[in-house]
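quick q for whoever's on today - can somebody do inverse folding on this one?? i tried earlier but teh output was garbage lol. tokens:
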């Protein structure tokens, strides 16, 4: 009963996204049947239509890990109290929150503006059930970006604690203020925060990288295929309706615009996840580097033992650091590997395109009736 309202609201949001995804699948199958799989309409409906599915999965993942979220918040609060008492400083949470809400609002405003332009371009009028689209369509895109910003914000908090610890360790060269045992305790608290972040965000990181790579590869595959316009697969009867041609081409233009937004979100997922995790892991390793620069006293066996503890803890970073579901650490090599895969895939497709013997087979298009044309003109959704 404690989280009944939260679970109920999340269930309603998930059901809404599932229904929207079902409608997008129906639209994609319709375009695939009429125009072919690699036509502009079909591909754009796949790329932009995946948003509800991503939202439903991400919301379900966070709801299933609600206890891990509360553990993360409590862990950060505990570390903040310790650092405030010892170093008299605290992370600029207000600044991080301002960045979070500013980027979210800017993204919402951009998608809202695009939908308004589309709404006006087709001469639609208010006063129908479709008015809810003014809120639903921008929210679909916003839900894709909010968890990513939340993940980045917690990584910024961890890096702030690491920098405070590094700054204090640098001062130890001039005058000893704290023992290495004290620094090791604070280091363990920071690693506990990272472990709590992983417990909450690891499934999200893995899923986000997976669907982002899929979208980028699909986009590259589409761009490397022979150019196709909406007019090509239409029967000769269609050319007698120039107004319908202009209408459908306008629909395609806006569909490509929504697809471009989704491609940008996919690229941001890869860039932000790899960048945030990489910086956090590297900043954490810098703590050990600064510890090793401290020369122990002649008979300070305890200092030597604490240094050994630091080094041993860093050897287990794959267990508590920023990882992809503990499969591998987020490092520079991770980002370069993902980029290399995308570039290699693009060059491979371009090479196959140049070889006519390896070109994919083409299939005849279905004949489209006037009823089908009207359906296409009225059912295309962002």
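ok took a stab at it. sequence:
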């Amino acid at each position: 009963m404690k989280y009944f309202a939260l679970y109920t609201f999340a269930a309603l949001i998930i059901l809404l996204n599932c229904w929207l995804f079902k409608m997008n699948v129906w639209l994609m199958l319709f375009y695939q049947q009429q125009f072919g799989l690699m036509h502009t309409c079909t591909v754009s409906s796949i790329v932009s239509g995946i948003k509800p599915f991503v939202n439903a999965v991400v919301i379900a993942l966070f709801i299933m890990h609600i206890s891990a979220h509360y553990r993360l918040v409590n862990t950060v609060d505990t570390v903040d109290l310790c650092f405030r008492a010892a170093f008299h400083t605290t992370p600029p949470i207000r600044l991080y929150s301002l960045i979070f809400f500013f980027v979210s609002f800017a993204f919402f405003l951009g998608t809202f503006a695009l939908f308004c332009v589309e709404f006006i371009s087709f001469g639609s009028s208010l006063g129908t059930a479709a008015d809810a689209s003014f809120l639903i369509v921008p929210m679909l895109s916003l839900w894709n970006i909010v968890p990513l910003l939340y993940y980045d914000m917690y990584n910024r908090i961890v890096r702030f604690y690491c920098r405070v610890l590094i700054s204090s360790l640098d001062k130890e060269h001039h005058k000893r203020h704290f023992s290495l045992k004290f620094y090791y305790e604070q280091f363990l608290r920071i690693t506990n925060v990272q472990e709590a972040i992983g417990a909450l965000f690891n499934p999200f990181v893995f899923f986000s990288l997976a669907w982002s790579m899929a979208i980028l590869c699909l986009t590259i595959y589409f761009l490397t295929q022979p150019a196709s316009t909406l007019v090509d697969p239409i029967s000769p009867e269609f050319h007698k309706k120039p107004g319908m041609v202009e209408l459908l081409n306008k629909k395609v233009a806006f569909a490509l615009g929504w697809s471009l937004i989704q491609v940008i979100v996919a690229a941001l997922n890869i860039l932000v996840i790899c960048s945030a995790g990489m910086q956090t892991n590297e900043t954490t390793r810098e703590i050990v580097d600064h510890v090793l620069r401290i020369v122990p006293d002649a008979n300070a066996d305890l200092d030597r033992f604490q240094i050994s503890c630091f080094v041993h803890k860093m050897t287990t970073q794959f267990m508590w650091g920023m990882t992809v579901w503990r499969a591998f650490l987020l490092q520079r090599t991770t980002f370069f590997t993902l980029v290399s895969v995308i570039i290699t895939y693009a060059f491979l497709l371009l090479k196959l395109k140049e070889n006519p013997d390896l070109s994919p087979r083409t299939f005849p298009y279905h004949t489209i009736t006037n009823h089908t044309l009207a359906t296409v003109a009225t059912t295309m959704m962002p």
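fwiw Residues 362-381 have pLDDT under 50 and may be disordered. also Residues 55 and 150 are 15 Å apart (CA to CA). so keep that in mind when u check it
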